[in-house]
Amino acid sequence: MSRFSSWRHALSLTTPVMLGYVPLGIAFGVLCVQMGHAWWLAPLMSVAIYSGASQFLLLSLLAAGASLTEIGVAIFLLSARHLFYGLSLVSRFRGSGARKPYLVYALTDETYSLLSSRAETRDPAVAFRVSLLNQGWWLLGSLLGALAGSLLSFDSTGMEFALTALFIVLTLELMATVKRMAPFAIGLACGLGALLLLPQRHMLLAAIGAACLVLLLDYRRRAPRPVEQRP
Question: Which residues cross the membrane (predicted)?
Fold first, then answer.
């Protein structure tokens, strides 16, 4: 496969992410400018931070006058789910060479979904192209939004729904690939349980931890037991 064909294939893999990242990035860029920040701060954050939820949270914390400690703790807790993503891909990233630091850095929710559901992304070169294109879509959206926000004045209410729509599309694609409903039912049950029983600031981390624990127990239950060898 030629280099051009390889990039074209990676482009086709990241198209669903592009359809969500660009509109959501535009919403972030517009919001950043409307909150009084310079237009270049939005693309800079998309390069240096590259975490949609954390970037939106950072804008809110800056507006509230939060301290650096408060900002650091809040963003760490919000991004703690990436620890689970990284642990599940440690063995795959081991042979990626110089690409490894960027693959670890660029592991967003949507990129993880692609890397864990598509067999061809086991190739470090393909995984690198997918990760780079996904960040490129987010950077493009935030840049366009920042420029639009600095030149135009309009109401951006509702644009953040693009992230929810993107998660729905990726979940459906993952369900079609895995062809097993139990992991999704476990995730749904843990998410609803955390939503009903816990305060909002603890909900996400608790839901992820509970889902991982139940999935590990389910995996242990289904794993074939070693055959005992007679002397």
Answer: 20-44, 56-78, 136-154, 161-178, 184-217
Would you say the pTM of this structure is higher than 0.85?
no
Please report whether residue 10 resides in a domain: yes
Q: Work out how many domains the chain is built from and give that number.
A: 1
**Residue 215: C-alpha distances to residues 61, 89, 175, 225 (Å):** 34, 16, 16, 17
Residues 42 and 146 sit within 8 Å (Cβ to Cβ): yes
Residues 144, 99, 45, CA angle at the centre, nearest 5°? 30
Helical segments of the chain, H only: 3-34, 41-48, 52-63, 68-78, 81-88, 90-93, 100-105, 109-117, 124-151, 161-178, 182-197, 200-222
Minimum mean pLDDT range among 48-52, 59-63, 142-146, 226-230: 226-230
Residue 7 placed within a domain: yes
Position 230 in a domain: no
**What is the Cα–Cα distance from 16 to 70, expressed in whole angstroms?**
34
For residues 118 and 17, the answer to whether their CB atoms sit within 8 Å is no
CB 27 within 8 A of CB 162: yes
Q: What is the pLDDT of residues 2-45, one digit of tens each?
A: 666 788 889 999 998 998 899 889 988 988 888 888 999 999 99
pLDDT at 140: 96
Residue 190 has pLDDT above 80, yes or no: yes
